Amino acid sequence: MSQKPDDQNKHDDAASGRRNFLKLGFLTAGLTIAGGGIQKVLSDQEEPANKETGEKVKLLTPDGKLVEVDSAYLKEHSHPKHHCGASPDESRVGVPGKKYVMVIDLSRCKNALKCQKACQKHHLLPAQDKWLKVYKMQDTEDTAPYWMPKPCLHCDKPPCVKVCPVDATFKREDGLVLIDNERCIGCRFCMAACPYSTRTFNWEEPQQPEYVNEMVYSPETSTPRKKGTVEKCDFCPDMLKQGKLPHCVTACPNGVYYFGDANEDTVTNGDETLRFKQLLKDKAAYRYMESLGTEPSVYYLPPVNRLFPFVDSNGEEKESDS
Amino acid sequence: MEETNKHMSEKEAIEMLHHYNDDLLPQKFGKAGKIWVVFLVAVIVFGLYNYVIQLKKGLSITGLSDTVSWGIYISNFVFFVAVSLVGSLITAVLNLLNVSWRAPITRMAEIIAVAGIIFAGLIIIVDMGRPDRIINMFIHGRIQSPIMWDVIVVTTYMTISLLFLYFPLLPGISFCRDRMKNIPKWQHKMYKILALGWNNKPAQYKMVKKAITILSVLIIPVALSIHTVTSWLFATTYRPGWDSTNFGAYFVAGAFMVGAAAVIAGMYVIRHFYNKYDELITDKHFDRMGRLLVLLSFIYLYFTINEYFIPGYKMKGDEGAHLKELFIGHYAPMFWLVQIFGMFIPIIVLLFPQGRKPRSIFLMSVFVIIGAWFKRYLIVIPTMLHPFLPLQQVPESAKHYTATLAEWSITGASLAGALLVITLFIRYFPIISIWEVAEERGVSHYTIYKHLNEQE
To answer: What DSSP assignment string belongs to B191-210?
Structure first.
């Protein structure tokens, strides 16, 4: 597969299915053909280099079928590079013409935490590192409590970017604030500067599946994670590049998250697609701690006319299990 | 300031030097000195051992978490920077003000400054998650970041302080080179190299004095900058307790105070171990330093009131919650102990002439120094425990901060390292700048050294 992001964009849709297939194939092949040094992966495009050997290899297809192929069809393949992320330098540019925004409808959130689960899963995060949190908020004693999901707010005036001594965390043209953890020196000034407790630090060698270490790092996937560096919610740029929604948005069963492009003036939660500016107006949207002047890219819709009553039955449990 | 030392004639000055004779030269450690060095080395070795573990395992061996991401490494850094400010106070400010009693204590102040700033630089590297990438600061450095400002001013201050220590030391080193017999070869060689061929020529003195004047002027803005910029590491954030326009002045005031206390403590210890030095570092010096310390404490009190009690009058939102934690909450015992022992008691005691006697002022200085260390702990940690968003869905360990043994040992090693630098300096170099003392008493340094050399 080509490493150029442009190329990848073009072929993304066609490629993603194949890519998943290749990944699975790679894993299975790794298991089937013992002696892990050089991995071989089934190629569905190219002619076999050698004539059929007669040696059959069992592989698992994405839909769960076990198939047998001749070993001649197995082609030596370098390790899968990354999901879709560009190199650290390329990642600094952003998707041209886009200005990503998120709208979080607090009236729909019942703390189902599906968003968080999807986030943990796709970013391969252990339980103690949470990039997305759902806070139980209560502004005053007499006002109603509500759930407030909080990803990175991807501020337009990001305090974290301002203080970074080495330009390891940066603001992109498309509004995303990302981190290059191959450059980060681990001073943690950005963590002190962020007013939203967004950033987490790899205090030790991060727990992650072994195959991750074989992957080439990209700030767009934030994988593999690295000891002694800062990380945070990245709005899933690998998904955005494919024209897909971030994992938290698609995982939410209640349509809490709207995601979209302010330049197109469109946001969607997967079910309904709305005019971004009109939604902000209609629902009296606000940004968290506007007075700080950080200009977040994440807007909140107030928790009025709620879909669900506020139930905090397992709140404590959730806190302690983390 | 009034004159505290009467002028001497040349003859008197030479008599004075004869009286001290070789006592002015660095001396071998006695038993206490040896035990002290062994103790310091042991502390350093234990800290280094833990630092090696930290390099391998990561900062997880500390009590730090995503909530309290800066801990005692950082508060200790602030402490070191604070202590190092004294170099400019005693040597530069008093020099430019032409204060007549400063000569015997300038070198003490400068070595404290140099030791402090070296270990400030080292402890900040200890705090880094990726010290192996320190080169990125030069490759990808961003001048917009306060950390960059800090790196620039700390290295500048380190350079100027080293020169400020070194230039006035040249006659002393040559003195050691010429006068010290029965010393190991390497030691003699070290003096020979470091003396830069100094042979007490009037032109050399002229050059050194010119350099000192230039450095005196240069060091003051740089010294004020290091502490101001260090305060900006905090004040450039939004966090309650750090988001303060008072922070720069408050840090500088606190630094002057702890620095002066450090010099007083040093004076006392030196006098204790070198019998004849009480004729050079007199009770009058303690009295004068006591007055200076009480003045600096009052300035610090002024900024403390501005920093805590005026916001405390309003108790505004998150700031109020943070202050409550300090005044009557979890950190109240430490907060009030620090205020009482680190400021109020020293102020009251030092107001009285009896309180400015060496022993009493030494005790007060120790209070001030210990108080200052914990004061910086109180500046860094409680604020980190008070983010804007509630501490939810975080591991239990991220709701508190307790420094681990490893963290304490590494911090302790940095303190021991600074003390070892000072101790070894006293072991190998004259801690009192005799030519400056003589000059302060109206005698030409040139005459003195010429005489001394003729004695050989």
So the answer is: HHHHTTT----HHHHHHHHH
pLDDT in tens, A27-41: 444 444 433 333 444
Tokens matching residue B15: 């008599």
- Counting beta carbons within 10 angstroms of the beta carbon of residue A51, is it exposed (0 to 12), middle (13 to 18) or buried (19 or more)? exposed
Look at strands A74-76 and A66-70 and give their pairing.
Answer: unpaired
What's the domain count of chain A?
Answer: 2
With respect to residue A199, please indicate whether it lies within any of the assigned structural domains: yes
Do residues A40 and A178 share a domain? no
Same-domain pairing of A45 and A188: no
Q: Which pLDDT score is estimated for B352?
A: 92
Domain range for A196 is: 98-301
In the structure encoding, which two tokens stand for residue B112, read together?
């404290």
Interchain CB contact of A54 with B (< 8 Å):
no
Q: Residue B442: what pLDDT?
A: 72
Q: Which residues of A236-246 are buried (b: 16+ CB within 10 A; e: fewer)?
A: bbbbbbbebbb
Nearest to A136 among B65, B147, B392 (CB): B392
Global pTM reads 0.85
Instruction: Give how many domains chain B has, as a whole number.
Output: 1
- Residue B339 within a domain: yes
Q: Which tokens go with B330? A: 């979890």
* Residue B430 to residue B219: CA distance in whole angstroms: 23
Query: Which candidate from B57, B141, B389 shows the least CB-CB separation from A135?
Result: B389
Residue B153 domain flag: yes
- From A228, A148, A155, A234, select the one nearest A195 (Cα to Cα): A155
B181-238 pLDDT per residue, tens: 888 889 989 999 998 988 878 888 889 889 988 998 888 899 999 999 999 999 999 9
From chain A, the residues in CB contact with B233 under 8 A are 189, 192
In a domain, A91, yes or no: no
Please check whether residues A70 and A108 belong to one and the same domain: no
Would residue B1 count as lying in a domain? Answer: no
- DSSP symbol at B237: S
Give B235's Cβ-side CA count (13 Å radius).
15
Task: Write the pLDDT tens digit of every residue in B92-135.
Answer: 888 788 777 888 888 889 999 999 999 999 999 999 999 999 99
State ipTM. 0.89
B129: nearest CB among A163, A193, A228:
A228
Q: For residue A319, tell me if it sits in a domain.
A: no
> Does A107 share its domain with A46?
no
Quick one: A119 and A258 in the same domain? yes
Shortest distance between the Cα of A262 and any Cα of chain B, in A, equals: 27
Does residue A89 fall inside a structural domain? Answer: no
Does residue A113 share a domain with residue A35? Answer: no
Interface test with A, best of B144, B389, B401 (most A CBs within 10 A): B389
Is A287 near chain B, with CB under 8 Å?
no
- What's A265's domain CATH number? 3.30.70.20
β-bridge pairing A74-76 and A40-42: antiparallel
Indicate which CATH number applies to the domain containing B388: 1.20.1630.10
SS3 content of chain A, % helix, strand, coil (to 5): 25, 20, 55
Q: What pLDDT score was predicted for residue A47?
A: 53
**Unique residue bearing structure tokens 């697609």:** A273
**Which residue of B64, B66, B123 is the best one to mutate when testing the A interface, meaning the one whose CB has the most A CBs within 10 A?**
B66
| B308 Cβ contact partners less than 8 Å away, ≥ 6 residues apart | B323, B326
- The reply to whether B257 falls in a domain is yes
Chain A CB contacts of B319 below 8 Å: none
CA B39, CA B33: separation in Å to the nearest integer?
Answer: 10
Q: Do A105 and A72 share a domain, yes or no?
A: no
Domain that holds residue B416: 10-455
Same domain, yes or no, for A131 and A268? Answer: yes
CA distance B106 to B168: 10
Q: Indicate whether A4 pLDDT > 50.
A: no
